Amino acid sequence: MVKRPRRLRGSETIRKMVRETRVDKSSLIYPVFVKDGTGLREAIPSMEGQYRYSVDRLPYALEEILKSGVSSVMLFGIPKHKDEKASQAYAGDGIIQRALREAKRTFPELYCITDVCLCEYTSHGHCGMLCGREVDNDSTLQVLAETALSHVQAGADMVAPSDMMDGRVAAIRRVLDENRFTNTPIMSYAVKYASGFYAPFRDAADSAPAFGSRRSYQMDYHNSREGIKEVLLDEEEGADIVMVKPALAYLDMVVKVKEATNLPVAAYSVSGEYAMIKAAAGRGWIDERSIVCETAVAAFRAGVQSYLTYYAKELAGYMDEGLIG
Q1: Which are the catalytic amino acids?
Q2: Which run of H or E residues covers position 42?
Q3: Selection from 90, 81, 69, 108 nearest residue 319 by Cα
Q4: Which of 62, 82, 121, 196 could pair with 86 as two cysteines, CB 3.0-4.6 Å apart?
Q5: 3-state secondary structure of 27
Q6: Nearest-CA neighbor of 79 among 66, 67, 90?
Q7: What is the tens place of the pLDDT at every residue in 100-144?
Q8: How far, CA to CA in Å, does 295 sit from each of 116, 161, 220, 244, 309?
Q9: HEC string for 271-318
Q10: Are 324 and 297 in contact (CB under 8 A)?
């Protein structure tokens, strides 16, 4: 035989030399939940090993993240007070705004991305302003833009709108530019499906809708061309990075998005993916480390450049061990 593919698999050195997909710590983003209160390191029951932190305890969590080699976080806020107008989302002393100031005070080198959405802050749990029992798209845009601006003013390095309102990237870009934040990038949750994989997150962020569902603004998981339409619209409106969410069941969309745009592509390995791996590993049915590495590499193989995952710290350690990289 002239052609023997096994020649390039004979040792660890040659396997790494010809590796097609390379993973780096700098591509990892760790989601962090921050909650109103003091002295809190509150376990999330549906997400073993994940916690909600009060601002005073946040530096301890951030120090651990940085020590692992992960240098970027995505902050999610859980306010004490919620109302129909989501007023704590854009308040100067809101939970995210205080968390950002503390994060930048203690670890200025940390790259802080903020989730821009209203579901954690509204009394009804939907991602926008209501008109009756319907989410009103256009009246939500100004609130989202004001929220994004308040995050950047508090120290956010990047904002990431996840609400799926039409036109929200343009609204945020316009307000940031008007306030001289022209260099602040926007990571758009461009291809965000209405997914059952989000269930543990809604527990973690206390953001389940009080009525109805989010199917009128999040995407139908039967559709793929619609996702490309969303990406191209967000690119036109000024997005700098586009995201596919969830990750594991939607890697076909990562491939298609990568082909459709020259923007960097991110994917979010969401709470349900994390919880399933934890549950199966806890019963001894799978090897947790192996599955975490395999699913992460699958995302990068599909074309992801930034990977949001609750396993970011572990993945950084696995890279140090040479298990992936």
Answers
A1: 192, 245
A2: strand 41-43
A3: 69
A4: 121
A5: helix
A6: 90
A7: 999 999 999 999 999 999 999 998 888 988 888 888 999 999 999
A8: 26, 25, 23, 15, 11
A9: HHHHHHHHHHHHCCCCCHHHHHHHHHHHHHHHCCCEEEECCHHHHHHH
A10: yes
